[in-house]
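Lecture notes, part 5. Sequence design as translation. It can be helpful to think of inverse folding as translation between two languages: the language of shapes and the language of residues. The source text, in structure tokens, appears below.
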């Protein structure tokens, strides 16, 4: 057992104020609201998207007003952060991305509160004694706290897996892990959400923001908070978490030693420390000898400055993936100045020339990224570092970037491979699950 795991377990059974476990920092100093400000986030025009559009001076005025309101309803009592059920929410001054959050709360009958992650609602807190109301079927407090209540009803994570709330008068402990859009929640030591995707409540057509503040919601009844600790999750650990989401049934497509099971100009690639690396000023399309229809692929990739490569999806073995396969998924340092004027369907994660991916979710150049590609029929999803950046039905594409591409034509099966373009882009831990 690691020291960090032991520290978390010790925190979980604590019944008093605790010191931050190793690697964590305190969000609340047990004395005042330093590090926090008010945010009336559901006030008209106060959502993160609208707020970001305001001039800096107007933002400052709103924060000042919201913080003044918060101070009327939030107080500190014997090292506990207390809200009377009214007023603005509390938001951290700092923004957070991939994190582990530890937090304890105690509330009252009729409670309805929650924890916003990256400024987005929310890990729900209920009074689980409330009965189900068939007139409001999407509201299910009787199932308990910890679910991602603002997700679309019926989606994974929206309702908690088990009822784990303690009786009123006792402290409840949350452990929350957020990696990309993926969320894990434990309530009182029981898993209530396991790697579900948190939707962007503010614009469901867009991914969850890469970073944002943590908010404590106030909603009609007194709630007390204590032992608020946070830890930033590094990229290697983040990849480990995301690997758990993918599940079982994967087979290595690359053995880390040689090109057994691969075809194409493999002489243009090196194998270095278990990775496939395209040789500088070399390239070509290498691909698995096995063909796939519907499948899920997971892999890690790393690009050098300005690096360019791609993933061949249902490639026939001849021609070009961007034209003759289902598609080529771009692997690209699209922040490099030389790519500034590309078509939006050419940026990283896009189905080249066919469907544009959301940008801004790749890790810095030189770091390993974790990518999952899911192919089913004519649809393709690309999840990068835990965030869904492409969700497209290529069978419905009618206009491509170039005339020779294939709007609406999607081959039923083909090979999986890499599309080298002269840059030393590296790939490792390539796994595929045929469906």
């Amino acid at each position: 057992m690691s020291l960090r795991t032991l520290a978390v377990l010790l925190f979980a059974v604590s019944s008093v104020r605790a010191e931050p476990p190793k690697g964590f920092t305190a969000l609340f100093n047990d004395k005042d609201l330093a590090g926090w400000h008010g945010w009336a986030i559901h006030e008209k025009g106060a959502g993160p998207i609208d707020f970001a559009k305001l001039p800096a001076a107007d933002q400052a005025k709103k924060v000042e007003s919201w913080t003044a309101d918060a101070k009327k309803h939030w107080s500190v009592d014997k090292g506990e952060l207390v809200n009377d059920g009214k007023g603005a929410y509390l938001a951290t001054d700092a923004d957070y991305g991939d994190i582990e959050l530890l937090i304890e709360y105690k509330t009252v009958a009729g409670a309805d509160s929650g924890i916003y992650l990256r400024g987005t609602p929310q890990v729900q807190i209920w009074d689980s004694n409330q009965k189900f109301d068939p007139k409001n079927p999407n509201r299910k407090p009787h199932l308990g706290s910890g679910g991602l209540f603002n997700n679309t009803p019926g989606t994974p994570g929206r309702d908690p897996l088990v009822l784990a709330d303690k009786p009123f008068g006792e402290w409840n402990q949350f452990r929350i892990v957020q990696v990309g859009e993926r969320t894990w929640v434990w309530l009182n030591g029981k898993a209530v959400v396991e790697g579900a995707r948190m939707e962007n409540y503010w614009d469901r057509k867009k991914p969850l923001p890469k970073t944002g503040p943590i908010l404590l919601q106030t909603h009609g009844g007194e709630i007390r908070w204590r032992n608020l600790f946070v830890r930033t999750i590094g990229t290697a650990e983040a990849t480990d978490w995301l690997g758990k989401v993918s599940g079982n049934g994967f087979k290595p497509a690359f053995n880390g030693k040689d090109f057994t099971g691969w075809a194409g100009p493999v002489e243009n690639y090196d194998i270095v420390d278990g990775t496939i690396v395209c040789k500088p000023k070399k390239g070509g399309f290498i691909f698995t000898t096995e063909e796939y229809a519907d499948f899920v692929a997971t892999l890690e990739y790393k690009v050098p400055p300005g690096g360019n490569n791609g993933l061949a999806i249902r490639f026939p073995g001849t021609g070009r993936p961007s034209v003759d396969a289902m598609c080529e998924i771009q692997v690209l340092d699209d922040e490099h100045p030389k790519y500034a004027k590309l078509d939006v369907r050419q940026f990283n994660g896009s189905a080249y020339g066919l469907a544009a991916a959301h940008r801004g979710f790749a890790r810095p150049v030189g770091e390993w990224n974790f990518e999952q590609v899911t192919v089913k029929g004519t649809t393709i999803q690309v999840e990068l570092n835990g965030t869904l950046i492409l969700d497209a039905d290529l069978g419905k594409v009618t206009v491509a970037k170039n005339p020779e591409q294939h709007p609406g034509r999607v081959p039923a099966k083909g090979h999986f491979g890499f599309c080298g373009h002269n840059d030393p882009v590296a790939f490792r831990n390539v796994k595929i699950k045929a469906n």
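The translated text above is only one of many valid answers, since several sequences can fold into similar shapes. Residues 9-14 have pLDDT under 50 and may be disordered.
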